[in-house]
């Protein structure tokens, strides 16, 4: 009987030890967090943007991608919407300064930058 009780205590001790070390590892991992990437909408005033040709848009896209490659993983272009006289670009970046740097290096105007708090869609109505 004493042997079974000792085994139970040993088992409980091992479980507690495992839980403690798991928590300690999680705490260690939390101190090395990846930087938070926020999502932004960039408004660019570009007269005649809606009349840009496919080769023009390809060239602009290639320039943007080359600047992004140079800048590294702290900034990412998701997609853009081309309208009559504006292009609206959706980016992820650690901060707004990186977006302005990208615009300057690429020669892209930056009219306005807005951080996107969240997104909704028709699927939101069903959730």
Structure characterization notes:
This protein has 127 residues and is α+β, with helices and mostly antiparallel strands. The protein has 2 domains: 1-33; 38-118, Alpha-Beta Plaits (2-Layer Sandwich). Helix content is 50%, strand content 22%. The protein has 4 helices and 4 strands. The protein has helices at residues 2-30, 54-71, 96-106, 122-126, and strands at residues 38-45, 75-82, 86-93, 112-115. It has a 4-stranded antiparallel β-sheet. β2 and β3 (86-93) form a beta hairpin. It is extended and about 85 Å long. The model is unreliable at 13-28 (pLDDT under 50).
Looking at the chains present, what oligomeric state does this protein adopt?
A: single chain
Spatial gap, N to C terminus: 55 Å
**CATH homologous superfamily descriptor of the largest domain:** ORF SCO4226, nickel-binding ferredoxin-like monomer
Structural class: alpha+beta
CATH class of the largest domain: Alpha Beta
Low-confidence stretches: 13-28
Mind describing the biggest β-sheet?
4 strands, antiparallel
* Number of β-strand runs: 4
Strand arrangement in the largest pleated sheet: 2-3-1-4
List descriptors.
127 residues, alpha+beta, Alpha-Beta Plaits, 4-stranded antiparallel sheet, 50% helix, 22% strand
Per-chain topology:
Elements: H1 2-30, E1 38-45, H2 54-71, E2 75-82, E3 86-93, H3 96-106, E4 112-115, H4 122-126
Antiparallel strand pairs: 1-3, 1-4, 2-3
């Amino acid at each position: 009987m004493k042997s079974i009780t000792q085994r139970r205590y040993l088992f409980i001790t091992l479980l507690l030890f495992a839980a403690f070390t798991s928590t300690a590892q999680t705490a260690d991992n939390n101190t090395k967090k990846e930087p938070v990437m926020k999502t932004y909408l960039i408004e660019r005033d570009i007269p005649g943007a809606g009349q840009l040709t496919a080769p023009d848009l390809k060239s602009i896209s290639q320039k943007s991608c080359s600047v992004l490659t140079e800048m590294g993983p702290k900034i990412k272009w998701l997609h853009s919407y081309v309208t009559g006289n504006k292009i609206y670009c959706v980016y992820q970046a650690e901060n707004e300064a990186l977006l302005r740097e990208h615009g300057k290096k690429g020669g892209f105007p930056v009219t306005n930058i807005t951080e996107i708090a969240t997104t909704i869609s028709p699927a939101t109505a069903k959730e």
